[in-house]
Write a structure and sequence with these properties.
Elements: H1 12-21, H2 23-33, H3 37-52, H4 54-66, H5 69-101, H6 109-118, H7 120-133, H8 144-170, H9 188-208, H10 210-213, E1 226-228, E2 236-238, E3 246-252, H11 257-273, E4 278-284, H12 292-301, E5 308-310, H13 315-318, E6 326-330, E7 336-341, H14 346-357
Length: 358
């Protein structure tokens, strides 16, 4: 609740700038008004989606028309959910600490959430340079060590906000208002400068790489590839060599529980449909995070009845694979017959195979 007679609350960029240069006053104002932290965090989530995830948002939107409504919703929820999930984790963790340590008589979960949500501001600021480098428009792929250092700095900064919030709750309860802070308000400019730059680069990159954003759908020619086998068998698998058969491409990874849950069903369908000139190919998308020896050990313990190849970081991109499980059915003519994103039931996959085999 705003204080009666208090000056109008400054614009959002000014408030964010004040969090950067005078966090005590910013947090004090939230404590006085008992609102504002969650709202400002949600603003930053929206900015992060547009600035750092624009290509992913466009892929999700294109998926509605190019693949299916289910695929579009899955991708859209995945993108939005990941941003909201990060902000929620920071806010809820901070809120829990603030509420528990506020002391007897001062514990207020609603106010703790507002103050905890304000902790997402420094988290967002700390990660913005790394996210800019990691964007598709730059393809910088910042070093893993840099990401770890920034992660530590971000959480230390959040911890500072938690400490300042606790000091406010345990100390003075005098109202604090955010009157226009003069030059201090300019601190909000660099906070928004990097997201603005990322958004500009994302728009330019998306306009120039429309074909990469447009997911493959029915009747599109399936991109050819030749990938080495990783299932203990020598040689490689080339899609062109399978022309004339129906081919199921299963993009999966050892760290993907939904992918692993689908394997028994896929293995059973392979045994049922392979005699009908249908081939399955597993495309391992573990990437550099999982050592190749670990993937080979997994396949030795749980062997596949069909070939398994390892993605070269390019094939998945050409097929528009940005979340797994991702199944692509290629018809006998080499064109895509069906795409399933996020898993599929045995009945639906069998029906798709029957349609592609006609």
């Amino acid at each position: 609740m705003a204080v009666e007679g208090a000056p109008a609350e400054p614009a959002w960029p000014v408030r964010v700038g004040l969090f950067l240069v005078a966090p005590t006053r910013g947090l004090g104002a939230i404590a006085s008004r008992r609102t504002g932290g969650v709202r400002d965090a949600l603003y930053l989530v929206g900015i992060a989606l547009l600035a750092f995830r624009l290509p992913d948002l466009l892929r999700a939107l294109f998926s509605f028309s190019r693949v299916s409504a289910t695929a579009g919703l899955s991708r859209l929820f995945g993108v939005v959910g990941s941003e909201l999930g990060t902000a929620a984790f920071v806010a809820l963790t901070s809120a829990l600490v603030i509420t528990l340590l506020a002391g007897r008589g001062r514990r207020d979960p609603a106010l703790g959430l507002e103050l905890g949500a304000a902790g997402y501001v420094p988290y967002f600021i700390a990660w913005s340079p790394v996210r800019l480098l990691d964007s598709e428009s730059l393809l910088g792929y910042p070093p893993h060590l840099l990401a770890r250092v920034v992660g530590v700095v971000a959480w230390l900064w959040v911890a500072l906000f938690v400490g300042l919030s606790l000091r406010r709750l345990r100390g003075s309860s005098a109202p604090v208002t955010l009157s226009p802070p003069g030059r201090r308000g300019l601190a909000g400019i660099p906070v928004l400068a990097l997201p603005a730059l990322a958004l500009t680069l994302g728009i330019v990159w998306s306009a120039r790489h429309y074909e990469l954003l447009r997911p493959l759908g029915r009747s599109d020619a399936a991109p050819d590839f030749s990938l080495p086998r990783i299932d203990g068998q020598p040689g490689s698998v080339r899609l062109a060599d399978l022309r004339g058969r129906v081919v199921v491409l299963d993009f999966w990874a050892t760290w993907c529980p939904p992918c692993l849950a689908m394997l028994p069903m896929l293995h059973d369908l392979y045994r049922e449909w392979h005699p009908r000139d249908v081939e399955f190919v597993g495309v391992d998308a573990d990437g550099p995070v999982v050592p190749r020896a670990e993937v080979e050990g997994f396949l030795a313990r749980r062997p596949f009845p069909y070939p398994v190849v390892v993605d070269d970081k390019e094939v998945g991109g050409r097929y528009g694979v940005y979340s797994i499980p991702h199944l692509v059915i290629v018809g006998r003519d080499g064109k895509i017959a069906r795409v399933f994103v996020g898993g599929v039931s045995r009945e639906h996959l069998a029906a798709a195979l029957a349609a592609a085999s006609e």
